[in-house]
């Protein structure tokens, strides 16, 4: 007699099988990482000093200085001494002028993690996921690990288990709270402390923009300026559409700014050389490579992008419409795979702009005009701001309030022992 399994049971068994495969895969990866870590010399104990550091900020890349600087400035304003550890030798933090912020380079890759794994500190704040999953292990001499999201994004957007072993998360929206609690529930994890602070670097951008408006600082005006600012890789706009999208933009008659992702100039150098030669700077076209994207965002009326984080910077800070490409997102490697609710980003994008694909590419001018003039996108942006950017303008103060209060609690509890 044939064995029958009803659809519900089959689905459950399939989910269990996928979970077991995923767990085995991560155990194997963890084992391989440990071997590489030991062979590279990272397994040797690194003395982090006998004195316990009150609060450490760890940054795995120099680009996160803009995320942490508002918090460092607030700590400095209050006279609180902080140690800022970075894995980038050219991190701007190393040249910061704040009296109470001591920045130090702790080495790259395994060398950085070797020091962190034996760190002696009360609190560590970081935007780096994967604590206690890969090379970065919880130090026995650190009491509390706090993760801060570095953009208007999702806790489920990290690779699986990326935030599981933090003690607290600094968030900016209620949907992040709900997703965190759901993941904790299905994994039987202890509840983390969740604190909604806002988004520090977006507060900085917004304050800068408001200051310019008050000073009546104007940018060079054209009838309309379109910013094409894609990410990089095979699925990104310039790889996908090549010169075709630039030709269509030229036909609009609008001023066009092309701002490739910095990685494109190394990973896709041949493509960049070809496009920049084919479409040189002119009165209508300009290529932009500024380190700071603030001015180019301010000058533009609409953004065309893909999966780059600049989409939310432009839509929420500058409150302007976007056109985004159809990206094929594979949830498989990410915590989003476990969610039963829609991925928040994909609910937000249709409210702030239109999707660009092969079928409507030739109608790009009409899409641009519609996105700029249709009031529904302005309403959608306001909805999305409320959902993902709570406490606008207050993030640095709220973050430091939380960290200093938490430090006092932990220090008091340590004294009782």
What's the count of strands? 13
By CATH reckoning, the class of the largest domain would read Alpha Beta
* Number of distinct helices: 15
Strand order of the largest sheet: 3-2-1-4-5-6-7
What does this 3D model show about the protein?
43% of the residues lie in helices and 15% in strands. It is an alpha/beta fold. It has 2 domains: 53-199 and 393-416, 3-Layer(aba) Sandwich (Rossmann fold); 203-388, 3-Layer(aba) Sandwich (Rossmann fold), CATH 3.40.50.2000. α2 packs across α15 (395-416) and α12 (344-352) runs antiparallel to α14. The longest helix is centred in the N-terminal third of the chain and has 33 residues, at 7-39. The relative contact order is 0.11. Residues 1-16 and 32-49 have low confidence and may be disordered.
Topology:
Layout lengths: L6 H33 L13 E7 L5 H13 L4 E5 L14 E5 L4 H7 L4 E6 L15 E7 L19 E4 L2 H14 L5 E4 L3 H15 L10 E4 L8 H5 L1 H10 L2 E4 L5 H4 L1 H10 L6 E3 L6 H6 L2 E4 L4 H8 L4 E4 L18 H9 E4 L7 H10 L1 H14 L6 H22 L1
Parallel strand pairs: 1-2, 1-4, 2-3, 4-5, 5-6, 6-7, 8-9, 8-11, 9-10, 11-12, 12-13
Helix pairs in contact: 2-15, 12-14
Summarize this, please?
This protein is of the alpha/beta class and 417 residues long. The chain has 15 helices and 13 strands.
Supply the key terms:
417 residues, alpha/beta, Rossmann fold, 2 domains, seven-stranded parallel beta sheet, six-stranded parallel beta sheet, globular, disordered N terminus
């Amino acid at each position: 007699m044939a064995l029958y399994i009803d659809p519900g049971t089959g689905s459950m068994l399939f989910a269990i099988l996928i979970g077991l495969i995923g767990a085995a895969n991560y155990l194997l990866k963890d084992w391989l990482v440990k071997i590489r870590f030991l062979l590279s010399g990272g397994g040797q104990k690194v003395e982090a000093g006998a004195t316990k550091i009150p609060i450490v900020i760890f940054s795995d890349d120099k680009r996160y200085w803009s995320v942490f600087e508002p918090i460092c400035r607030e700590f400095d304003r209050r006279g609180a001494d902080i140690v800022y550890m970075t894995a980038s030798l050219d991190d701007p933090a190393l040249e910061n002028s704040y009296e109470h912020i001591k920045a130090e380079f702790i080495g790259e890759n395994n060398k950085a993690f070797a020091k962190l794994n034996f760190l002696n500190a009360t609190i560590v704040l970081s935007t780096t996921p994967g604590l206690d999953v890969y090379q970065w292990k919880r130090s026995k001499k650190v009491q509390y690990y706090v993760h801060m999201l570095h953009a208007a994004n999702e806790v489920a957007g990290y690779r699986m288990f990326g935030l599981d072993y933090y003690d607290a998360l600094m968030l900016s929206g209620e949907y992040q709270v709900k997703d965190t609690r759901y993941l904790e529930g299905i994994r039987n994890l202890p509840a983390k402390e969740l604190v909604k602070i806002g988004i520090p670097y977006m507060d900085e951008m917004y304050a800068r923009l408001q200051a310019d408006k008050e000073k009546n600082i104007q940018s060079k005006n054209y009838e309309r300026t379109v910013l094409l600012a894609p990410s990089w890789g095979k699925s990104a706009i310039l790889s996908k559409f090549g010169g075709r999208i630039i030709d269509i933009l030229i036909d609009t008659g609008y001023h066009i700014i092309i701002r490739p992702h910095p990685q494109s100039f190394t990973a896709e150098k041949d493509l960049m050389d070809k496009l920049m030669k084919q479409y040189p700077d002119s009165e209508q076209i300009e290529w932009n490579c500024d380190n700071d994207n603030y001015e180019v965002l301010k000058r533009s009326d609409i953004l065309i992008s893909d999966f780059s984080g600049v989409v939310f910077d432009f839509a929420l800070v500058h409150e302007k419409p976007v056109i985004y490409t159809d990206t094929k997102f594979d949830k498989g490697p990410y915590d989003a795979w476990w969610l039963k609710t829609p991925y928040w980003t994909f609910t937000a994008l249709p409210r702030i702009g239109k999707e660009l694909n092969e079928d409507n590419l030739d109608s790009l001018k009409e899409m641009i005009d519609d996105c700029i003039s249709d009031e529904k996108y302005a309403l959608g942006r306001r909805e999305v701001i409320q959902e993902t950017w709570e406490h606008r303008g207050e993030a640095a103060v709220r973050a430091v309030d939380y960290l200093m209060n938490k430090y006092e609690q932990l220090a008091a509890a340590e004294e009782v022992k």
